Amino acid sequence: AQAEKAPYPHFMLKEIHEQPQVIRETLRGRIEGTEIAFPGLKLDPGFLKSLRRLYITACGTAYHAGLIGKMLIERLVRIPVEADIASEFRYRDPLLGPGDLLVVVSQSGETADTLAALREAKAKGATVLAITNVVGSSVAREAHEVLYTWAGPEIAVASTKAYVAQVVLFTLLAVYLARLRESAPPELLRELAAGLPGLSETVQAVLAREEEIAALAGARKGWEHTFFIGRGLDWAVACEGALKLKEISYIHAEAYAAGELKHGTLALVTEGVPVIALATQPALWEKMQSNIREVKARGADVLAVTGAKAAEIVAVADEAICLPPVHPLLAPVVAVVPLQLFAYYAAVARGCDVDRPRNLAKSVTVE
Ligand code: G6P
């Protein structure tokens, strides 16, 4: 195993660095110019056009990809999407039936709760589309249709490249469905499709700033709890950033919708508490600026992950990682990368066993 991760000290770091390639692989054969197609996908276009709502279910990191899928599909396809954790979804007699589509997301394709939700949906007559990374996995075999994330084997327990591939796939799916249903302005859909292949280079540009991000993580010493805040897509990215940090560094991290802070959580923001503020959506910068001011006023140490031209965010944060220019709807793919590196270097600084965190399994096949 030592040889396989070389020259990287951990599989997680290797897999983080594979992401530009994974983005290319996940797009391969599915995008031609600005045309999107899913060769081999047999879902009837009539069925996809008639969908009145959509369900997404998954566990852990895959669920966080599902949250982004929900927001992108709602935004572009204009139908309600419910995204829920599989262990909740399956036990609540989900309102699924013939004519409904459930998208299940699973890197391994073996997660017990996700598989059980899939079976429950099938038993109720719904159609199941799986997004998975493992060919021939239980989820792949049992779903009606499969879209593979071509991320290659993921060894580190904390998922990175599979998540990025899941988000890319949801973006493709949202644009594809929106074209089919003519539910979004064609020029917006063209812009998104044209922007997708470039994500590989954009992520590469973020990876080139690894040292800067490592220094930001290393500089925060003796912290035991932190908040990740954001709105909309950034909130979903914040959820994933917080999970990464918890999984491998054991620092308590809570992701919070920035606007909800004042309804209780702000009480926990005191002098020196690190807050990672996600602000990649220009339409929400003004609101995020006031949320950052709110936590700054309580003494928080704010690290912003924001856009290239976000002067109003940079002005109020203590430090900022400014991402390369990217369309706001594509930003989740890019914004998660510094958070992965941040979690990685925070864990390394604390001497944690990054690839094999305590109490966690790569694939949870028991309920
Ligand atoms: C475990 C892993 C997580 C993963 C989750 C779902 O808890 O530790 O990293 O996100 O399972 O796994 P799946 O294979 O279904 O995506």
Could you characterize what this model shows?
It catalyses: D-fructose 6-phosphate + L-glutamine = D-glucosamine 6-phosphate + L-glutamate. Catalyzes the first step in hexosamine metabolism, converting fructose-6P into glucosamine-6P using glutamine as a nitrogen source. Keywords: Aminotransferase, Cytoplasm, Glutamine amidotransferase, Repeat, Transferase. The active site is at 362 (for fru-6p isomerization activity). It is a single chain. Helices cover 46% and strands 16% of the residues. It has helices at residues 2-5, 11-17, 19-27, 45-50, 60-77, 86-89, 112-123, 138-142, 161-181, 186-195, 199-207, 210-219, 233-249, 285-297, 311-316, 331-349; strands at residues 31-32, 35-36, 54-58, 81-85, 101-106, 127-132, 145-148, 225-230, 252-257, 274-279, 301-306, 319-322. A five-stranded parallel beta sheet has the order 4-3-5-6-7, with helices on both faces. Strands 9-8-10-11-12 form a five-stranded parallel beta sheet, with helices on both faces. Helix 5 (60-77) runs parallel beside helix 9 (161-181), helix 9 runs antiparallel to helix 10 (186-195) and helix 12 (210-219) crosses helix 16. The longest helix has 21 residues, at 161-181. It is globular, with a radius of gyration of 20 Å. The protein starts with a helix and ends in an 18-residue tail after the last helix. The model has no long low-confidence stretch (mean pLDDT 96). The structure holds 6-O-phosphono-alpha-D-glucopyranose (G6P). 6-O-phosphono-alpha-D-glucopyranose binds at residues 59-62, 106-108, 111, 114, 157-159, 360-364.
